[in-house]
Amino acid sequence: MRYILISSILWLSSTTARAQTDSVQTEKKKTTFTIGATYASNASYYGQKAAEPMPYVALSGSIRFPAGIYFTGTGLRLLNDSGSVVSASAAGAGIAFNLGKKVTADLSYSHTFYPSNSPFLQAANPDNASATLSYEYWMTTGINVDYAFGKQQDAFVTLSTEKQIHLGSFAKGKDLVTLTPTLEVTGGTQHFYETYVKGKRFRDSVLGLPLPLPPGLPGTGTTTTRSNTSFDLLSWNFKVPLAYNRAHYMIEASYQLSLLSEKARTGAGDVNSFFNFSIYYQF
User: Fold this and answer.
1) How many domains does the chain divide into?
2) Residue 35 burial by CB count (10 A; 0-12/13-18/19+): exposed, middle or buried?
3) pLDDT confidence tier of residue 4, bands split at 50, 70 and 90
4) d(CA 183, CA 137)
5) Domain with 250 in it: what CATH number?
6) Which domain, by its residues, includes 71?
7) Which end of the chain is more exposed for a tag (fewer CB within 10 A), N or C?
8) Stretch 66-94: mean pLDDT
9) pLDDT band of 81, cuts 50, 70, 90
Protein backbone atom coordinates (compact mmCIF):
# COMPACT_ATOMS: atom_id res chain seq x y z
CA MET A 1 0.00 0.00 0.00
CA ARG A 2 1.50 3.34 -0.99
CA TYR A 3 1.77 6.11 1.54
CA ILE A 4 -0.77 8.93 1.65
CA LEU A 5 0.96 11.33 -0.75
CA ILE A 6 0.67 8.71 -3.48
CA SER A 7 -2.70 7.25 -2.60
CA SER A 8 -4.27 10.71 -2.52
CA ILE A 9 -2.91 11.39 -5.99
CA LEU A 10 -4.36 8.11 -7.25
CA TRP A 11 -7.83 9.00 -6.00
CA LEU A 12 -7.71 12.59 -7.15
CA SER A 13 -6.57 11.60 -10.66
CA SER A 14 -9.00 8.72 -11.18
CA THR A 15 -10.95 8.61 -14.45
CA THR A 16 -14.23 9.15 -12.59
CA ALA A 17 -14.33 10.05 -8.91
CA ARG A 18 -15.98 7.47 -6.71
CA ALA A 19 -18.04 10.30 -5.30
CA GLN A 20 -20.03 10.32 -8.51
CA THR A 21 -23.24 8.31 -8.86
CA ASP A 22 -23.90 6.13 -11.90
CA SER A 23 -26.02 8.78 -13.58
CA VAL A 24 -23.30 11.39 -13.28
CA GLN A 25 -20.66 9.00 -14.63
CA THR A 26 -22.48 8.88 -17.97
CA GLU A 27 -21.98 12.60 -18.56
CA LYS A 28 -19.44 13.90 -21.06
CA LYS A 29 -15.94 14.22 -19.69
CA LYS A 30 -14.92 17.71 -18.61
CA THR A 31 -12.16 19.45 -16.71
CA THR A 32 -12.55 18.79 -12.99
CA PHE A 33 -10.97 20.17 -9.85
CA THR A 34 -10.95 18.03 -6.71
CA ILE A 35 -9.92 18.85 -3.16
CA GLY A 36 -9.58 16.42 -0.26
CA ALA A 37 -8.80 16.22 3.44
CA THR A 38 -7.58 13.12 5.28
CA TYR A 39 -6.90 12.06 8.85
CA ALA A 40 -4.80 8.92 9.37
CA SER A 41 -3.91 7.08 12.55
CA ASN A 42 -0.41 6.32 11.21
CA ALA A 43 1.63 6.70 8.03
CA SER A 44 1.71 3.58 5.84
CA TYR A 45 4.48 2.80 3.35
CA TYR A 46 3.32 -0.31 1.50
CA GLY A 47 1.90 -1.58 4.79
CA GLN A 48 5.06 -0.73 6.73
CA LYS A 49 5.37 1.92 9.42
CA ALA A 50 8.09 3.85 11.19
CA ALA A 51 9.25 3.00 14.71
CA GLU A 52 7.51 6.05 16.15
CA PRO A 53 3.74 6.69 15.81
CA MET A 54 2.98 9.10 12.94
CA PRO A 55 -0.68 10.21 12.94
CA TYR A 56 -1.28 13.01 10.46
CA VAL A 57 -3.72 15.21 8.59
CA ALA A 58 -3.34 15.97 4.88
CA LEU A 59 -4.87 18.32 2.32
CA SER A 60 -4.85 17.42 -1.38
CA GLY A 61 -5.88 19.05 -4.64
CA SER A 62 -5.99 17.96 -8.27
CA ILE A 63 -6.97 19.32 -11.65
CA ARG A 64 -7.79 16.84 -14.40
CA PHE A 65 -8.39 17.57 -18.07
CA PRO A 66 -10.63 15.60 -20.48
CA ALA A 67 -7.59 14.12 -22.26
CA GLY A 68 -6.64 12.36 -19.00
CA ILE A 69 -3.73 14.65 -18.08
CA TYR A 70 -3.73 15.70 -14.42
CA PHE A 71 -1.71 17.71 -11.91
CA THR A 72 -1.78 17.17 -8.14
CA GLY A 73 -0.55 18.67 -4.91
CA THR A 74 -0.59 17.47 -1.29
CA GLY A 75 0.42 18.96 2.04
CA LEU A 76 0.77 16.85 5.19
CA ARG A 77 1.26 17.62 8.85
CA LEU A 78 2.23 15.09 11.50
CA LEU A 79 0.11 15.63 14.60
CA ASN A 80 3.10 15.01 16.87
CA ASP A 81 5.33 17.43 14.92
CA SER A 82 5.51 20.69 16.87
CA GLY A 83 8.44 22.05 14.89
CA SER A 84 6.76 22.88 11.58
CA VAL A 85 3.37 23.64 10.07
CA VAL A 86 3.93 21.31 7.09
CA SER A 87 5.77 18.02 7.71
CA ALA A 88 5.90 17.09 4.01
CA SER A 89 4.41 18.24 0.70
CA ALA A 90 4.20 16.74 -2.77
CA ALA A 91 3.53 17.78 -6.36
CA GLY A 92 2.84 15.42 -9.23
CA ALA A 93 1.61 15.02 -12.79
CA GLY A 94 0.41 12.14 -14.90
CA ILE A 95 -1.87 10.83 -17.59
CA ALA A 96 -4.62 8.20 -17.42
CA PHE A 97 -5.96 6.56 -20.58
CA ASN A 98 -7.92 3.56 -21.84
CA LEU A 99 -6.27 0.67 -23.64
CA GLY A 100 -9.61 -1.05 -24.27
CA LYS A 101 -13.15 -1.24 -22.95
CA LYS A 102 -11.98 -2.90 -19.73
CA VAL A 103 -8.29 -2.01 -19.57
CA THR A 104 -6.94 1.31 -18.27
CA ALA A 105 -3.41 2.60 -17.74
CA ASP A 106 -1.89 5.42 -15.69
CA LEU A 107 1.58 6.95 -15.89
CA SER A 108 2.66 9.47 -13.27
CA TYR A 109 5.56 11.21 -11.57
CA SER A 110 5.66 12.96 -8.20
CA HIS A 111 8.20 14.69 -6.00
CA THR A 112 7.83 14.97 -2.25
CA PHE A 113 9.50 17.75 -0.28
CA TYR A 114 10.80 16.54 3.08
CA PRO A 115 12.52 18.69 5.72
CA SER A 116 15.98 17.62 6.87
CA ASN A 117 15.99 14.64 9.25
CA SER A 118 12.41 13.74 8.32
CA PRO A 119 11.01 10.74 10.27
CA PHE A 120 9.21 9.29 7.24
CA LEU A 121 10.38 5.83 6.14
CA GLN A 122 10.47 6.92 2.50
CA ALA A 123 12.27 10.23 3.01
CA ALA A 124 15.39 8.88 1.26
CA ASN A 125 13.39 8.57 -1.99
CA PRO A 126 11.52 11.83 -2.64
CA ASP A 127 10.98 11.09 -6.35
CA ASN A 128 8.51 8.48 -7.56
CA ALA A 129 7.75 7.32 -11.11
CA SER A 130 4.74 5.05 -11.38
CA ALA A 131 2.93 2.92 -13.97
CA THR A 132 -0.41 1.19 -13.36
CA LEU A 133 -2.40 -1.24 -15.51
CA SER A 134 -5.95 -2.23 -14.47
CA TYR A 135 -8.44 -4.73 -15.83
CA GLU A 136 -12.11 -4.36 -14.87
CA TYR A 137 -14.51 -7.32 -14.93
CA TRP A 138 -16.80 -8.30 -12.03
CA MET A 139 -13.78 -7.26 -9.95
CA THR A 140 -10.93 -4.87 -10.74
CA THR A 141 -7.45 -6.36 -10.85
CA GLY A 142 -4.28 -4.37 -11.42
CA ILE A 143 -0.53 -4.23 -11.30
CA ASN A 144 1.42 -1.16 -10.20
CA VAL A 145 5.16 -0.57 -10.60
CA ASP A 146 6.92 2.19 -8.64
CA TYR A 147 10.48 3.41 -9.06
CA ALA A 148 11.42 5.51 -6.03
CA PHE A 149 14.70 7.40 -6.09
CA GLY A 150 16.69 10.21 -4.49
CA LYS A 151 19.36 9.44 -1.90
CA GLN A 152 18.55 5.76 -2.49
CA GLN A 153 16.85 3.80 -5.28
CA ASP A 154 14.07 1.28 -4.76
CA ALA A 155 11.57 -0.56 -6.96
CA PHE A 156 8.18 -1.85 -5.84
CA VAL A 157 5.57 -4.00 -7.56
CA THR A 158 2.03 -4.24 -6.20
CA LEU A 159 -0.62 -6.70 -7.35
CA SER A 160 -4.14 -5.76 -6.30
CA THR A 161 -7.71 -6.88 -6.67
CA GLU A 162 -10.86 -5.20 -5.39
CA LYS A 163 -14.63 -5.45 -5.60
CA GLN A 164 -16.93 -2.49 -5.14
CA ILE A 165 -20.14 -3.55 -3.39
CA HIS A 166 -23.20 -1.28 -3.54
CA LEU A 167 -24.93 -1.27 -0.14
CA GLY A 168 -27.83 0.98 -1.03
CA SER A 169 -29.05 4.58 -1.15
CA PHE A 170 -30.55 7.01 1.37
CA ALA A 171 -31.84 9.58 -1.14
CA LYS A 172 -33.63 7.67 -3.92
CA GLY A 173 -30.64 7.21 -6.23
CA LYS A 174 -29.01 10.59 -5.56
CA ASP A 175 -26.43 8.97 -3.31
CA LEU A 176 -24.70 5.62 -2.95
CA VAL A 177 -23.10 3.72 -0.07
CA THR A 178 -20.25 1.47 -1.14
CA LEU A 179 -17.89 -1.04 0.43
CA THR A 180 -14.73 -1.89 -1.54
CA PRO A 181 -12.70 -4.76 -0.05
CA THR A 182 -9.18 -4.65 -1.51
CA LEU A 183 -6.31 -7.12 -1.34
CA GLU A 184 -2.79 -6.02 -2.25
CA VAL A 185 0.50 -7.90 -2.32
CA THR A 186 3.69 -5.81 -2.50
CA GLY A 187 7.27 -6.79 -3.25
CA GLY A 188 10.32 -4.57 -3.54
CA THR A 189 13.81 -3.59 -2.49
CA GLN A 190 14.61 -1.86 0.80
CA HIS A 191 17.50 0.58 0.35
CA PHE A 192 15.31 3.25 2.00
CA TYR A 193 15.51 1.46 5.35
CA GLU A 194 19.25 1.97 5.77
CA THR A 195 18.86 5.73 5.39
CA TYR A 196 15.85 5.73 7.72
CA VAL A 197 17.75 3.96 10.53
CA LYS A 198 20.73 6.33 10.20
CA GLY A 199 18.36 9.29 10.40
CA LYS A 200 16.57 7.86 13.42
CA ARG A 201 19.85 7.29 15.22
CA PHE A 202 20.74 10.93 14.64
CA ARG A 203 17.34 12.21 15.82
CA ASP A 204 17.47 10.02 18.93
CA SER A 205 21.04 11.09 19.72
CA VAL A 206 19.94 14.73 19.64
CA LEU A 207 17.31 13.81 22.23
CA GLY A 208 19.88 11.85 24.23
CA LEU A 209 18.33 8.51 23.27
CA PRO A 210 20.95 6.62 21.21
CA LEU A 211 19.52 3.73 19.18
CA PRO A 212 21.57 0.50 18.79
CA LEU A 213 21.99 -0.65 15.22
CA PRO A 214 19.53 -3.40 14.26
CA PRO A 215 21.07 -6.62 12.88
CA GLY A 216 22.19 -6.39 9.26
CA LEU A 217 22.80 -2.65 9.11
CA PRO A 218 26.19 -1.02 8.45
CA GLY A 219 28.77 -2.00 11.03
CA THR A 220 26.99 -5.23 12.02
CA GLY A 221 27.86 -7.57 9.18
CA THR A 222 27.78 -8.13 5.41
CA THR A 223 24.08 -9.01 5.06
CA THR A 224 22.86 -5.43 4.65
CA THR A 225 23.60 -5.01 0.96
CA ARG A 226 22.06 -8.35 0.05
CA SER A 227 18.98 -7.72 2.22
CA ASN A 228 18.36 -4.20 0.96
CA THR A 229 19.15 -4.90 -2.70
CA SER A 230 17.29 -8.17 -3.17
CA PHE A 231 13.72 -8.00 -4.44
CA ASP A 232 11.53 -9.66 -1.80
CA LEU A 233 7.92 -9.99 -0.79
CA LEU A 234 7.26 -7.15 1.67
CA SER A 235 3.62 -7.18 2.71
CA TRP A 236 0.09 -8.46 2.33
CA ASN A 237 -2.46 -5.66 2.73
CA PHE A 238 -6.21 -5.96 3.23
CA LYS A 239 -8.20 -2.74 3.09
CA VAL A 240 -11.91 -2.14 3.67
CA PRO A 241 -13.09 1.36 2.63
CA LEU A 242 -16.70 2.26 3.49
CA ALA A 243 -17.82 5.31 1.50
CA TYR A 244 -20.82 7.58 1.21
CA ASN A 245 -20.99 8.99 -2.34
CA ARG A 246 -22.86 11.96 -3.77
CA ALA A 247 -22.61 13.62 -7.17
CA HIS A 248 -19.79 15.96 -6.10
CA TYR A 249 -18.38 14.61 -2.86
CA MET A 250 -17.38 11.45 -1.04
CA ILE A 251 -16.91 10.68 2.66
CA GLU A 252 -14.86 7.57 3.37
CA ALA A 253 -13.73 5.64 6.44
CA SER A 254 -11.12 2.98 5.77
CA TYR A 255 -9.40 0.28 7.82
CA GLN A 256 -6.22 -1.42 6.59
CA LEU A 257 -4.60 -4.55 8.02
CA SER A 258 -1.05 -5.29 6.83
CA LEU A 259 0.97 -8.45 7.40
CA LEU A 260 4.70 -7.97 6.84
CA SER A 261 6.74 -10.81 5.40
CA GLU A 262 9.80 -12.24 7.10
CA LYS A 263 11.91 -10.25 4.62
CA ALA A 264 10.49 -6.86 5.63
CA ARG A 265 13.23 -5.02 7.49
CA THR A 266 10.85 -2.58 9.17
CA GLY A 267 9.39 -5.37 11.32
CA ALA A 268 9.57 -8.90 9.93
CA GLY A 269 6.35 -10.80 10.56
CA ASP A 270 4.61 -7.89 12.25
CA VAL A 271 0.94 -7.06 11.77
CA ASN A 272 0.17 -3.36 11.32
CA SER A 273 -3.19 -1.62 11.27
CA PHE A 274 -4.18 1.80 9.95
CA PHE A 275 -7.37 3.85 10.06
CA ASN A 276 -8.09 6.69 7.62
CA PHE A 277 -10.98 9.13 7.38
CA SER A 278 -11.24 11.23 4.22
CA ILE A 279 -13.52 13.79 2.59
CA TYR A 280 -13.27 14.68 -1.13
CA TYR A 281 -15.17 17.32 -3.09
CA GLN A 282 -15.14 17.61 -6.88
CA PHE A 283 -16.08 20.79 -8.74
Assistant:
1) 1
2) middle
3) low
4) 16
5) 2.40.160.40
6) 4-282
7) C
8) 93
9) confident
